[in-house]
Amino acid sequence: xxxxxxxxxxxxxxxxxxxxxxxxxxxxxxxxxxxxxxxxxxxxxxxxxxxxxxxxxxxxxxxxxxxxxxxxxxxxxxxxxxxxxxxxxxxxxxxxxxxxxxxxxxxxxxxxxxxxxxxxxxxxxxxxxxxxxxxxxxxxxxxxxxxxxxxxxxxxxxxxxxxxxxxxxxxxxxxxxxxxxxxxxxxxxxxxxxxxxxxxxxxxxxxxxxxxxxxxxxxxxxxxxxxxxxxxxxxxxxxxxxxxxxxxxxxxxxxxxxxxxxxxxxxxxxxxxxxxxxxxxxxxxxxxxxxxxxxxxxxxxxxxxxxxxxxxxxxxxxxxxxxxxxxxxxxxxxxxxxxxxxxxxx
Length: 346
What we know:
Blueprint: H1 5-19, H2 23-46, H3 57-72, E1 74-77, E2 83-86, H4 91-113, H5 119-138, H6 140-143, E3 156-159, E4 163-166, H7 170-193, H8 195-205, H9 207-212, H10 217-243, H11 253-266, H12 273-288, H13 294-311, H14 316-344
Antiparallel strand pairs: 1-2, 3-4
Helix pairs in contact: 1-7, 2-7, 2-10, 2-11, 2-12, 3-4, 3-5, 3-10, 4-10, 7-8, 7-10, 8-10, 11-12, 12-13
């Protein structure tokens, strides 16, 4: 049943802008889509390898800054009299560099920390995120520090017959985010269904047995961390070119908490879990804002999260799968009983 969730989401959200006239709601959907991409990338680590990254926002922020600086240009001085000057380039090039450099950061973090896993990896990721935040805050010559990088150009895509097209409208950015989210989902789905995906799940379920079968744990987890970081960097690039202004607050720990909530509430270790959790907790604040005060919103937000964790401890998607499995045997039993009854009649 759950294999139809992603195609259904794609069709529904592809049609949403056609009937949605409120730019505020469209903006909320774009931000929710960007955070959902981050949640999917985190789920690749947390859900399929069992490794919790509490510094995942670092890759999101690095992707945002790399893409913005590539498009804006910079002029910075380095030790020993060196100086690097960049006049600015294509936002699409910034997107590619953001994916590549964040993937490299994920690779380096994986190589350093996956030799000793568990709490060590959590500590390394938190420390990495804080170091990157302090660099963004204090390297004013490059990042403008708390003054923020402003006037970041919109994403530009080459369109056959039209040349380079700047995505200025909310609808254009919406479909760009939807396309990146769909590609990210397909990459994760193919990866999980492959031999490499079986190795990841094997390490999560029983590492000793997986090692005895010849699975290279460090290499497998490092590759997963690299792909996960690259996807988070892609989301950061989309965020920078859509919002068009970024500051060190992009590294706030609350973004990581939001990603973890989306993954755990939707169902970690499932493909559709981050989609369901992302849509629910991305749009819930928007739905609550017009009907109650900010203080009450957080109370309801927390109450819903607690209710999900108590009633569906494995997440929404696994709970739906269990419900479908419980109903299926009863339906099959009734279907099998009807022919038997018909054959017994004279």
